[in-house]
Amino acid sequence: MGNLSPKLYDIAMKPFERSRFYQIRKSIAGNARGTVLEIGSGTGINFPFYRQADSVAAIEPDEAMRKRSLQRAAEAKVPIRTYAAKAEALPFGDDVFDSVVATLVFCTIPEPEKALREIRRCAKNGAKLYFFEHVRMNQKPIGFLQDAMTPLWQKVAGGCHLNRDTLALIRKSGLNVLEVKPMYDGLFLAITCINEK
Fold it and tell me: How far apart are CA 157 and CA 37, in angstroms?
């Protein structure tokens, strides 16, 4: 939601975060172990849920979002360091991370294929990857509506693609998809993968 201020973004998301999103984030971040990479950490909404991580490297290219996340990082149960970086050019070496978390971010990444290549490079062999994303729905009328709305929506919502098929992109990247949990009639997907090199 790049055109919303970080504070307004948190307010706009609050009704969703109070419902199933809370449990989804708790499960995803709570399962991330070892050295963790978070892609597009935004205002740090996942930070309170990290429990089993040794440390978290959180990338967020939007300066205002990143600044708003610093208080949550300071209050987290595990060490969290934020980086002003994009997913397509991660400032880390090869085979660094045990887990990767990405929630509601792949819709906005300009070059998702490149981002997935970078994530695979930085993740260790056998690393677990946890995605939670909204996607283009298979139901034709809704899918067509998402297609029609996306050009305008991108302009008002920070480049968000309502119709991006993130699951297909993940499969094409070479990640081994272990589990896909559809929610809200398939509008949202929780996707668990393993990085096998």
Answer: 24
Q: Collapsing DSSP states into helix, strand and coil, what is residue 40?
A: coil
Question: CB–CB of 137/185 below 8 Å?
Answer: yes
Residue at 171 is within a domain: yes
- CATH code assigned at 118: 3.40.50.150
Cα 181 to the center of its chain, rounded Å = 15
Q: Give the separation between CA 37 and CA 44, rounded to whole angstroms.
A: 13
Q: pLDDT (tens digit, 9 = 90+) per residue, 49-89? A: 999 999 999 999 999 999 999 999 999 999 999 999 999 99
- Domain membership flag for residue 168: yes
Q: What is the pLDDT of residue 186?
A: 72
Q: Which of 190, 171, 142 is nearest to 31 (CA)?
A: 190
Q: Is residue 163 part of a domain?
A: yes
Domain of residue 29 covers: 6-194
User: What is the tally of structural domains in the chain?
Assistant: 1
Instruction: Report which of 130, 134, 119 is spatially closest to residue 174, judged by C-alpha positions.
Output: 119
Is residue 132 one of the residues assigned to a domain? Answer: yes
pLDDT surpassing 70 at residue 177:
yes
Burial class from Cβ neighbours inside 10 Å (0-12, 13-18, 19+) for residue 136 reads buried
User: What is the predicted pLDDT for the residue at 1?
Assistant: 40
